[in-house]
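re: that chain from earlier
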Amino acid sequence: MKFSILLFLIILTGTGLQAQNEGPVQLIEKRTTSYFSANHRQKIFIETDKTKYKPGETIWFRVFVLDGNNLPDTLETSDLLVKLLDASGKVAGQELFRLSHGSASCDFKIPEDLPEGTGLLCALTSSAKTQDDVPYALIRIYTAFQNKPYRRNTFLG
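^ sequence. v structure.
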């Protein structure tokens, strides 16, 4: 009799401890992971070397593609189409880059005849379904920079 009561208590305690392993945090993590696995949504970030450029200059930039869990995306996308839009919204140039482990280091030469104004550098993957899914970086095109040397104010005393 004592043995069966002791066995019952051990089984009851074991199932209670096993149920405690599935706490609310683990449950939320499991559900979130399964949601983002079923509803794959990419996040794309563009990081440029600077924001002001001259026509004919090269834009150096890096693109990061993350999945819904903020991990480098390695699923279906391996190509990245980068477009440069001028101030009026027309495509001034485009180039195809290869993603490796969710990122790509890229360079893009600005056309010599690009007019002055604010342009957009857009990165497109095959998963972009609407215009809201297209990430962009604002760049400013200036046809002439002031090449004046820096002059330090000095006071003679």
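The beta strands are 43-48, 52-53, 58-66, 79-85, 91-98, 103-109, 117-124, 136-141.
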